[in-house]
Structure formats: structure tokens, C-alpha cells
Specification:
Layout lengths: L1 H49 L5 H5 L12 H32 L4 H13 L4 H15 L6 H25 L3 H9 L4 H29 L3 H6 L32 H9 L4 H35 L3
């Protein structure tokens, strides 16, 4: 009789857990639908308002006081150059720091403090990074209100994301890969460079692109550094026709980016500028979705080609 009561009690517990699982699933689906529908509504509004303004002249024209002739040439060029500096600064440093913390750093109190701080830095508001960049890069190092300062500020912003993504990707590799490499006489660096990094490259690349996709839409650090809200010229070209064919003058040039240009147009009362802002927002959303889609595709291709 006691066994029968125990079985009935277990069935009640299982039934209660299944009921809570179903309720949680329904709540999760509703939350997902609200988020997706909200995004689709906003995107559809931008698409309807901004699509008529998307033409070749819009991409090749400078900002203007006349909404009909205004474009985003300086904004998308500035965004591209800033993201280039961000990637060059954040990607090698983030991957190197992640590999060191996961494979080389001794397990002690100092390392644990570093790990906790790296994780916490991923959630710090972006304006804090802007203030840090303003004091360090603009004033202390004398970079001024330039593309270099903006790129380094955004690099600081996504650096914790790259570090965490690198560590998680390396942790996902089976221990047997390390043990097999060591059994064959591989050194620590050979194991990392020939096995761990190739196998974890898909996850690392995903984290990098997601971090860059976050940085491309950030406004607060760029405003803090002093990006121009109206600029009718382009930075010097990185490529020159004469030797040495590469120029770094563009690093110290003033700049603007897509979010700043959108802010400038939204703040104007004329309806035509609102349409320009919608068109610029549409371009920015498409760029972000493209980067995230690229991350998903590259992760799929890399994982498909990896043979465990």
C-alpha cells in the first residue's frame, strides 16, 4: 500500500512539473512573439517611410540643409573606417586574452578577479566606455576627436564580448582533443594553435561579428568623443597612388557615423528629414542583420567542415 502511495505521489510531482513546463513554454513563446512583432512593426514603418529615399544619390551625396538632396556618404564611409579600426584593435587582443585566460593563466585569486571583471564589463553601459575613451584617448594620448579615438572606444566596448566568446568556444572543445595532442608529444602552443583555435574558430567568429554588430549601432561613446553631426567631406583615402601606397592620415580625421546622422535628421522638424532618418535607419538595420546572418552562415560552414 505504501508503494502505491509513493507511485501516486511521484506521478503528481511529474504532472505538476509538466504543467509548469507547459506554462513556461507558453510564456516564452508569447515573449518571443511580442519581441518579433514589435521589431517587424518598427521595421515595416521604416521600410514604408524610407524605401522611396533609397537610391544611388542617397548613398553618394553628402548631408545637406535640403532634405531632398541630402545623403549618407560621409556617414557610411565614417562608419566603415571606424569599424575597421575597431576590428583591428579588438579582435587580436580579445582572442589573445581569451586564450591566455582559458589555457595559460594560473588558477589563483588574481585570475578569478580578472575573470569576474571581464564578465561584468560586458554589461557596463556604453556611455561609461565613451567617458573612458574621452579621458584616455582624446585628452591623455592626444588622439583628439578622430576616427582612431572612436574605433578604440568601440574596441573597448566589444572587447569583453570577444574574450567571453573565445573562452566559451574553447571550453566547448572535448577534452579528448587536448589529451590526444599531448599524447602525441605536442607542446602547449602546438595544441592551442593547431587544434583548439581551428576547432573553436566558428564560435569565436560568431562572437566577433555579434560584437561588431553591436558596435555599429552605438551612439553614446561616439557622441561623447565628439563625432560631428554635420560633415560635408570625406576623410583622406587609406590608399594612395604613389609609394608606399598606404596612408594613415585618415586615422586623425574628423568623422561622423550612421547613428549620429540619423540623430541629426530626427532632431529636425521637417517631415522630409524624418524620411531621410528612416532610410538611414533601414540601411543600418540591414547592415546589422547582414552581419548576424553572416555569423550564422560562417558558423554553419565551419562546423560542417570540422572533423572531430
Amino acid at each position: 500500500m505504501k508503494n502505491v502511495n509513493d507511485i501516486e505521489e511521484i506521478r503528481k510531482i511529474i504532472s505538476l512539473h509538466k504543467r509548469w513546463d507547459f506554462i513556461f513554454m507558453i510564456a516564452g513563446v508569447l515573449a518571443l512573439m511580442i519581441a518579433v512583432l514589435t521589431f517587424m512593426a518598427l521595421f515595416a514603418h521604416m521600410l514604408i517611410d524610407g524605401m522611396p529615399r533609397l537610391n544611388w544619390e542617397f548613398f553618394t551625396s553628402f548631408p545637406s540643409r535640403r532634405a531632398e538632396s541630402a545623403g549618407i556618404l560621409s556617414a557610411w564611409v565614417g562608419t566603415t573606417l571606424v569599424m575597421l579600426v575597431t576590428a583591428i584593435a579588438a579582435v587580436p587582443l580579445g582572442i589573445g586574452a581569451g586564450v591566455y585566460l582559458e589555457e595559460y593563466a594560473p588558477k589563483n585569486l588574481f585570475t578569478e578577479i580578472i575573470e569576474i571583471n571581464v564578465t561584468n564589463l560586458a554589461g557596463v553601459p556604453s556611455i561609461i566606455y565613451g567617458l573612458l575613451a574621452l579621458g584616455l584617448f582624446v585628452y591623455q594620448l592626444g588622439f583628439g576627436q578622430s576616427i582612431l579615438a572612436a574605433g578604440l572606444a568601440l574596441a573597448l566596448l566589444i572587447l569583453p564580448v570577444v574574450i567571453v566568446a573565445t573562452r566559451e568556444a574553447i571550453r566547448a572543445i572535448p577534452v579528448s582533443i587536448r589529451e590526444g595532442a599531448y599524447a602525441l608529444g605536442a607542446t602547449k602552443w602546438q595544441t592551442v594553435s593547431d587544434h583548439l583555435l581551428p576547432y573553436s574558430s566558428a564560435g569565436i567568429l560568431t562572437g566577433i561579428i555579434i560584437g561588431l554588430a553591436r558596435a555599429i549601432g552605438e551612439t553614446a561613446p561616439i557622441i561623447t568623443i565628439g563625432a560631428l553631426t554635420f560633415i560635408a567631406f570625406l576623410p583622406p583615402s587609406p590608399i594612395k597612388q604613389e609609394f608606399p601606397y598606404v596612408s594613415f592620415e585618415w586615422l586623425t580625421a574628423p568623422f561622423t557615423v550612421m547613428p549620429i546622422q540619423m540623430f541629426n535628421w530626427v532632431s529636425r522638424p521637417e517631415e522630409a528629414f524624418q524620411l531621410n532618418a528612416a532610410a538611414a535607419g533601414l540601411v543600418l538595420v540591414v547592415m546589422t542583420l547582414t552581419m548576424n546572418g553572416l555569423a550564422i552562415y560562417l558558423r554553419y560552414r565551419m562546423r560542417k567542415n570540422i572533423k572531430w
